[in-house]
Amino acid sequence: MQAPHHLHLVAVHRIVRYLRGTSNRGLFFPSGSPIRLNAFSDSDWAGCSDTHHSVTGWYMFLGEFFISWKSKKQDRVSKSSIEAEYPATSTACSEIVALCGLLAKIEFPQSNPTPLHADNTCAIQIATNPVYYERTKHIKVDCHYIREAVDKGVITLPHVSSDLQIADAFTKINGTTTTSDFSRQIDAS
């Protein structure tokens, strides 16, 4: 803003062209569909064959509609599966908090905690149990953000079996779960 250049103007023109060309597009939510967040989080352990870093993946749904996702290689090697899963669950929790804030601003506040479906029972136990575990000392303090979200009732952590974990598609090459499995999982919750 203080020292704009020609490239900045080119970028602004591109954004305006995009907005003009997509003004008739949007998300359609039928009147009977619930405006409720649901999330799935997963991680592989040392999945990258070159660096042995794990991959974080999560999906966010609003009702039955897919609205947000992420797949990213973690920035360090994890020594255990819990060390890979817990940060993945924590980053998904951060996205839930941001989406809850956005939904509240547009007058669709979430009245119940958002289910964050995880398939790692150790990650669920660490997040939901306030007792300090000696074996979790190595997990960074910022990852315990998820424990606070559980305590405040922002999220719940229902277990989802690995064969119904749709976030596998972002963490494993041959993940076979589909978004139609999401509906079955929600019905079972």
TrEMBL record:
What highest taxon heads this organism's lineage? Eukaryota
Q: What is this protein called?
A: Copia protein
Organism, scientific name? Capsicum annuum
